[in-house]
Amino acid sequence: MLFLSLKHLLSRKKQTGLILLGIILGTTAYVVISGMMLGFQSYILDRLVNNQAHVRISAREEYVYQNEMQKIFYPNDEMIVWKIPPSGRRDSTELQNPKFWFNVLDTTPEVFAYSPELTSQVIFRRNKTEISGKIIGSKPALEQRVSNLSDYLSEGLSFTDLGDSGNRIIIGAGLLKTLGARPGEIINVATGKGKSVPFKVLGSFNLGIQNIDDTTAFASLLDVQKLLGMPNRISNIGVKLIDPSLSSGLTEEWVKLSSDKVESWEETSAAILSVFKTQDIVRNFMTISILVVAAFGIYNILSILVNQKKKEIAILRAIGFDSKQIIELFMYQGMILGLLGGFFGMFFGYLGCRYIGTIKVAAGRIGGDTMIINYDAMIYIKAISLAFFSSLFSSFLPSYAAGKLSPIEIIRSEG
Fold it and tell me: What DSSP designation does 150 have?
């Protein structure tokens, strides 16, 4: 049966070659586009999601509303007309009961690690240069377990070099450049309320995200508490989970425990994830469109082949081939086209990804300056599956039509 299928396909080499080319192009396009898009997504996720906590517990953000104030000051439902309706916020700059959260996190098996932090807007000064930015105080050993920032530090530097105190600081590469400073020098950090405090620059980090690299610095939690005059205070807790996909469910549970703000990484990165979904839709739509065209080609070539091979079908039926075997004969042809097209498409797609992976896009980026390509095995499995099943589906109707033909009908139609 396989021999007959190959003979039928080779009898129309030009048409078979064109259909095979369509499947190869569709599969190649899927592999290349998927490799590029998923590589880009993994790059962004690694820097924006994995460098942040999966869940962040921070001081409450509470807005003042007219109805709420009316119930507090006028509980008897008096008819009140406000000349100037109350507005504003009643935020807290710090967690009111961090020990409560420590107990919750210590007893939650899904939690891998957590790190208390104190974050504040500050002014970085060196000579006459002043830059506003953000300083994050944390316990280096704990912060290292929550984020992978250590992977993007300057050579020879460890996050734990900050120690528990000593006014040492690690700043973004862009911020270091703007200040004109070098590792080992002293810069001053001020909150705007008190005197500047000197910090020794240990080194820099480079995430490749400009708004972070140009404005952010890390120091020990104790040093930042002293800088802000807020001993034993923390503003948020970063939580890393064993499974990041559990963050939404845990956030829904934890938000009921306190008035503090609890956000999952899906919420804080919602805009980025929506872009990823759009990319996936475009990627799948493009590939499916190409494969649909190829599938119609398979349908057409098999339909024509059925009409041209009626006499052979009649002979096969006459010598004992039943309807099921005739269907298998033409289904095999679709399967052969799908498998060959999928295999060669994966091969050329892999070669295309290897070439694109050599194209330089960003000089000086940590981890390399070329295109990031994803070589996940699932890309190739999905590629050959799409090619195979689209070919299989498109070959069913012509095969079914061929199986229903009887020798008598063929003789009459030929006569």
Answer: G
